[in-house]
Specification:
Number of helices: 15
Shape: elongated
Radius of gyration: 24 Å
Largest sheet: 9 strands, mixed
CATH class of the largest domain: Alpha Beta
């Protein structure tokens, strides 16, 4: 089912949202039959609690959904979305929601309709929502479509989502919006993007590394998005243990997220010049794999000692960032499933981000709150710069000791982003470990809505 709203219709049934302290007041205005039904169902207004209400003839006349108390609302995103799977087919209208909360409720409802069904039947809930009055329905539909694209790309296993398939997805998106695609591979990649080549060269020929570049728009500020496209990460010669390899199909989550964000930007006709750079590789093991102790010379000319072949994401991003920075964009953003340290620091829900600009940080944080896309700023902590300087080369891709792993990775990337007017880095997880309202277990976009919402303030 498309993630769109139902057409406006007088036949839409009311879905009334109630907080716990509003339940008795609502019941006092109903007839005894409805009150008995609701009390028999023990409806208390808990977050996401849903009770369909039959009419006198047995047909459905509406439903209730709980908003939760203040504590539950702090702990639960998209509570109203839980009602979608509990309601029968047909159009519904949302009643009792504050105007300030209507957009989040509407977005959550659409996102709750997502199902990944490429390999097994997985029917989406049939209940549909009429867009609440006053919300920007086309924008919300575009946000849902962007998230669905990101989820689909992440959820697809590496057998069907290698560098070539990621390139095909980018080409499909470009065709849809009239963008231009250029792809660099082969010997040109070896000469112009040596670290992308070094990471991807051990893969099979049909999974060869490449740099995907998409450009769109001719007017306005220049925005460059760089997404980590490691389609599978074995860890290279520093081989991951089996348990750590299980989710590595999601290691291209940064690329998936920037493609979803690019769709949103282009679908909304944003007045800017968009450039998307995706280094697409598979970090495999073969006789041609890069080795611990190797020293690589990057596109920028900086040398990098390889102390762990499993810290490959920052290498491919570095060459792409150097390319992007050369044109001095007004804003350059990297998104990557980069470090386990970020997960230890903030868990799977929060997307940590880095910027040296306080105004940008405030804009992203506010947009994240407004658009139910939680983010958290971490510091580019300059005193840790020495940790990424091994002495034998300009930079170290995996500083010993394990301290501040997300920060040192971000500092590494910042060295290659010099030249961009402003730079932001997101260290995302890209995965929902347990099902939650509007967020099924599996691939998940993070930070894209927050960044999109902040763009007017950042690029004005």
């Amino acid at each position: 089912m498309p993630l769109t709203f139902a057409p406006p219709t007088d036949a839409a049934l009311p879905l009334t949202a109630l907080a716990p302290d509003a339940v008795e007041g609502w019941l006092a205005g109903q007839d005894d039959r409805v009150a008995r039904i609701v009390r028999a169902a023990r409806f208390e207004g808990r977050a996401g609690q849903t009770v369909p209400i039959p009419g006198p003839q047995g047909d459905l006349q509406g439903a209730l959904v709980g908003l939760g108390d203040a504590r539950q609302r702090r702990r639960t995103r998209f509570a109203i979305a839980a009602a979608r799977a509990a309601l029968p087919e047909g159009p519904w209208r949302l009643d009792g929601i504050a105007p300030a909360d209507a957009a989040e409720a509407a977005l959550g409802w659409l996102l709750a309709g997502y199902r990944f069904d490429r390999y097994a039947k997985n029917a989406a809930p049939a209940a549909r929502l009429v867009a609440p009055e006053g919300v920007d329905a086309p924008l919300i539909e575009a946000m849902a479509a962007a998230e669905a694209l990101t989820r689909d790309l992440i959820n697809t296993p590496a057998s069907d989502m290698g560098p070539a398939e990621l390139e095909a997805a980018a080409r499909d998106l470009a065709d849809r919006h009239g963008a231009r695609i250029d792809v660099t591979g082969g010997d040109t990649l070896r000469d112009g993007f040596p670290m992308i080549h070094a990471v991807g060269r051990a893969a099979a020929p049909d999974r060869a590394p490449r740099l995907i570049e998409m450009t769109w728009g001719g007017d306005g500020p220049a925005l460059t998005l760089v997404g980590k496209g490691v389609c599978f990460d074995t860890g290279g010669l520093n081989l991951k243990p089996g348990a750590s390899m299980a989710l590595m199909k999601k290691d291209m989550g940064g690329a998936a997220t920037v493609l979803g964000l690019a769709h949103l930007i282009m679908a909304q006709g944003a007045k800017l010049r968009l450039r998307v750079l995706i280094p697409a590789v598979e970090n495999a093991v073969s006789g041609d794999a890069m080795r611990p102790g190797d020293i690589l010379t990057s596109r920028k000319g900086l040398t990098v000692e390889i102390n762990n072949t499993d810290a490959e994401g920052r290498l491919v991003l570095a060459d792409a960032l150097a390319l992007g920075a050369a044109d001095a964009p007004d804003l350059m953003v990297s998104m990557a499933t980069l470090t386990g340290a970020a997960r230890v620091a903030v868990g799977p829900d929060l997307a940590p981000f880095y910027t040296d600009d306080d105004a940008i940080a405030q804009a992203i944080a506010q947009a994240g709150r407004d658009l139910a896309d939680p983010v958290w700023r971490l510091p580019f902590w300059d005193p840790y710069e020495s940790l990424i300087e091994p002495g034998i080369a300009d930079l170290d891709n995996a500083p010993k000791g394990g301290m501040a792993g997300s920060i040192t990775a971000a500092l590494f990337l910042r060295r290659f982003a010099e030249g961009a007017v402003r730079y932001v880095h997101f260290d995302i997880y890209g995965w929902q470990p347990d099902a939650a309202p509007a967020r099924p277990k599996g691939g998940a976009g993070q930070g894209a809505r927050a960044l999109y919402g902040a763009l007017p303030a950042i690029l004005r």
